[in-house]
Amino acid sequence: MADMANRKVLVVGGSSGMGLALARRCLDSGAEVIIAGRNEDRLKRAREQLGNPATLDTVAVDIAREDQVAALFSRIGRLDHIVSTAADIEGAYQLLPALELKAAQRVVESKIYGPLLLAKYGAPMLSATGSITFTSGIAAYRPAARGSVVAAVNAALEGLVRALAIELAPIRVNAVSPGWVDTPIWSFVAGDKKDDTLNA
Fold first, then answer.
1. Integer Cα distance of 130 and 83 in angstroms
2. How far apart (Å, rounded) are the C-alpha atoms in residues 154 and 156?
3. pTM here?
4. Each residue's pLDDT tens digit in the chain (200 positions)?
């Protein structure tokens, strides 16, 4: 990773998985890092895992709540990069007969409404060379049974990102689409079939 000295990075969803790994890399590269997430206990554990450096701050926030997102950016002020790996997919990987609409709504809130609000309130705080990066996923391209909601939402997120890249230029807005990555979120995706899925 490039030298990140004197850069401020917000990592939403940074208390576990890929977000936590990214926060660690940014800290190791000299950046000031703010991790935002909904669960205060996970944020506390993340701080401990990262060694509680002076250049790390953690903030509890629900990115689907506009008032909380507005307050988040008022608190942290100017910054250079925003990255979101946040996704609430608990209960969403179900065959249609078992799928509850509330689970689908949580996916939409975390991966569509949340990114919209992060862009709305975060873009004015970014430097001219700043960037916003969201996390899509392989489900948008390789959908599978039980994954209809996540496939649809990831595809919608990528459409949103293309539009935001035009609207917010010269700020860079991108989506990364990782393949299967062994993170805690896998308990919601594959259950006891995790090894079979990762090795497929």
1. 11
2. 5
3. 0.87
4. 567 888 999 999 999 999 999 999 999 999 999 999 999 999 999 999 999 999 999 999 999 999 999 999 999 999 999 999 999 988 888 889 999 999 999 999 999 999 999 999 999 999 989 999 999 988 788 888 888 999 999 999 999 999 999 999 999 999 998 765 555 555 455 455 545 555 55
Q: Where are the domains of the chain?
A: 8-198
Query: Among candidates 159, 124, 161, 147, which has minimal Cα distance to 193?
Result: 147
Q: Edge-to-edge, what's the strand order for the sheet holding 56-60?
A: 56-60, 32-37, 8-12, 79-84, 126-135, 172-176
Selection from 146, 149, 153, 147 nearest residue 95 by Cα:
146
CATH topology of domain 8-198: Rossmann fold (3.40.50)
Task: Measure CA of the first residue to CA of the last residue in the chain; give whole Å.
Answer: 30
Catalytic residue among 15, 16, 84, 136: 136
Rg (alpha carbons) of the chain, rounded to whole number: 17
Our answer to whether residue 136 is catalytic in this structure is: yes
